[in-house]
Amino acid sequence: MTYGKSQAGSIQATPMEQLIIWLREDLIGEFEAINQYQLHIDNIDNEEIKTLLSHIRDEEKEHVAEITHALARIDAIQREKFMEDHTVAPEERVVQPVDDSTATTVGNLFGKK
């Protein structure tokens, strides 16, 4: 699954663009897993299994948060959109302003500036 730039097209995604695409695809997978676990939780009677699946579902939600925060660190436009969230007070927003000079990049993920 690709978005924006076709793997077969003449334009290739930069390493950063490809990383962002992969993280977005990972988010889709996490949301699908959450929905599937919730469906199962809602349709079984065994409390032990419900508890287990609820725990696993909540771990998937943690993954969503982790990936979302990573996207906000490496995708300046996404970070800006999170900061423009008008549905909550500024101090309650998922993403707070950051100093771009210390923002994570693909380069410094691998020890390069």
Please tell me about this protein's structure.
- The protein has 4 helices and no strands.
- With 113 residues, the protein is mostly helical.
- The chain has one domain (15-109).
- α1 packs antiparallel against α2 (47-74) and α2 (47-74) packs across α3 (76-83).
- It starts with 14 loop residues before the first helix and ends with a helix.
- The model has no long low-confidence stretch (mean pLDDT 83).
Keywords:
60% helix, 113 residues, mainly alpha
Distance between the termini: 30 Å
Number of domains: 1
Biggest sheet descriptor: none
- DSSP summary: helix tally: 4
Give the proportion of residues in helices. Answer: 55-70%
Derived from helix and strand composition plus strand pairing, the structural class reads mainly alpha
One letter per element, helices H and strands E, the order comes to: HHHH
- Taking pLDDT < 50 over at least 5 consecutive residues as the criterion, the unreliable ranges are none
Mean pLDDT: 83
Shape type: extended
β-strand number: 0
Beta-strand content estimate = under 5%
Rg value: 18 Å
